[in-house]
Amino acid sequence: MIDTALPLVDLHRHLEGSIRLETVLELSEKHELPIPAGGLEGLQEAVWMSEPTSDILKIMPKFDLLRQVYVDYEVCKQVARECIQDAIDEGLDYVELRFSPFFMAEMHQLDPMGVTEAVCDAWQQIDKEFPLRSRLVGILSRTYGPEICLQELIPVMAFAGKGLVGLDLAGDEARWPAGLFKEHFERARNAGLRLTAHAGEFAGADSVRETIEILKPDRIGHAVHAADDPAVMALIADRGITIESCPTSNYFTCSVPSYEAHPLPVFLKNGLKVTLNADDPTLFSGLSVWQEYELAAEMMGVSQEESKKMQLDGLEAAFISAEQKADIQKRKQIDF
Hints:
Layout: E1 9-14, H1 21-30, H2 39-47, H3 56-67, H4 73-89, E2 94-99, H5 101-106, H6 112-129, E3 134-141, H7 146-158, E4 164-170, H8 182-190, E5 194-199, H9 205-215, E6 219-222, H10 230-239, E7 242-245, H11 247-252, H12 264-269, E8 273-276, H13 289-300, H14 304-317, H15 322-335
Parallel strand pairs: 1-2, 2-3, 3-4, 4-5, 5-6, 6-7, 7-8
């Protein structure tokens, strides 16, 4: 369970999977985009994950329903602003919202640079009202291949320091291994961006090892199959890498067969740094980080002390300075 005296953070939340369905419905009707019959309820039925599936082809149409609304840069700005506001309203003390400029731009042939600028503009507006409550992480969508990802890296680097603090690698890790993106991560590191990468979600422990050894990330997203190899878990511990764990997402994408089989308790018992995150709340019926902590306790036997450690590890792993982390902790104590 969550310790309300400690800061609560979400370091792994996708903008594309956090959009309000009410906004999707409104914009789809406004721009005459195809949507399921039945209004909001019909949209919920089409988008929400009702059962686990390992077939990514069954999941992508859900994302297509969501991303079809990015018809222009003002919409990108609106959605980003709403997603950050929703995370704050959820009770999070800090959130890192990640997005793929190319993925958002693709359907209506927008410029990834313009998409990135719009998202960063939205962040700047929110940050004036809620300073130090959020930051942005750019995603390279590896499924498009290394060349497209180089194009995607350009706007992410261009807005480094303007709300954008990190780079992520997401997508089909089995077909597009980490080694193909070494140059991308070296460029990002030299530009001052912090690094995270999805690994061990849809591929085995070797994918996690390769990601760590080649990309040298500060954090790993999911890392589910790292638990299959004690040597890989030891590598994670030795490098001081934090795992961005998303149990509900892992269950619905069949990365694990059940909540009870999730390796989170194994990670904790091996002394790894872990934080809990919502991943794509819109796909999971509006899942909150609060619910993830409750599920970890009820379904995985995570103790109160282990939950507290995850909260602390989450703040420590945030892509902000030590002084800013101290400010968040101080503000939380004052509010409490």
